Amino acid sequence: xYKGVAVIGDRDSIYGFASIGxxxxxxxxxxxxxKTFRQLCKGEYAVIYITExxxxxxxxxxxxxxxxxxxxxxxxxxxxxxxxRGLAQVRKSVEKAVGSDILFGGKD
Amino acid sequence: xxxxxxxxxxxxxxxxxxKLVTAKRGHKLLKDKRDELMRRFLDLVKENMAxxxxxxxxxxxxxxxxxxxxxxxxxxxxxxxxxxxLQSLSVEVSAKNVMSVExxxxxxxxxxxxxxxxxxxxxxxxxxxxDYAVKSLSDIFPDMLRLAEIEKSCQLMAAEIEKTxxxxxxLEHVMIPETEANIKYxxxxxxxxxxxxxxxxxKVKDMMIKEQIEAKQAAKKAN
Lengths: 108, 223
Hints:
The structure holds two protein chains of two kinds.
Chain A: E1 2-9, H1 11-14, E2 23-26, H2 30-41, E3 45-51, H3 52-57, H4 59-65, E4 72-76, H5 85-98
Chain B: H1 10-72, H2 75-81, E1 89-98, E2 101-110, H3 128-222
Antiparallel strand pairs in B: 1-2
């Protein structure tokens, strides 16, 4: 089954991805972002890359799809710098599985 | 305690014993599953961490290049250049089963086969910075896709480990001790019943012997 790859976030952070064949969905605020994100989750996309800044505002929506296999929602740093949210996400899953953060010992 | 809830019968005892055997077996299997999942998860999460760092660095470079490109080009010409991408990419999703957790495997396919098909514009009206930017993004993409695969797997496995751990704990600390207590209760109750029956029988036998002796003595006197 073939599916696409989507990128969602503010325009400046994501417009380049169009050149390598990904579908881009520029959004300007969180309300529009939530609406677009919900639509993307419904089908055609296997992977959704989302900028960290937008992900911060759509935490609930992302949580909802985290249990199913598709789509995989992956945080990427936007053009305004790396907020460390993506790494925090990895840390969260370690904490969930092990019960405490054993890999990174709380340090960055 | 729950021991007051069970009927002290032999049938119940057999049932509980069977249940205990199943619970112990289930507990062992689930524990093994949890340990194996944990081992794989830890390997995977280490890779995830390393890959994420790499991807984030790569994206940072790509972003910088795009900012540069944007700085030297007019907004309109930049938009026009990227308006109609030549390349289109699709991902084949298949599932892999790891200890009953379905993890995704992504395999991507590009529509245009050439290495240079990522440049969807003529080179005459665009800055070379844009070329670098697009190239750096294209270079990092395979890693990005691998990251998507691994990170999703980690999330799914983490959820499964949590579930399994709860099941193991429930069996270990609730189900098994409770069943054992119930079995003990029923065994004691049955033993108690047996003893009281025996005592009653002995008592009855004593009474019967006594009666016989008395009857014999009465017969002797009569003679």
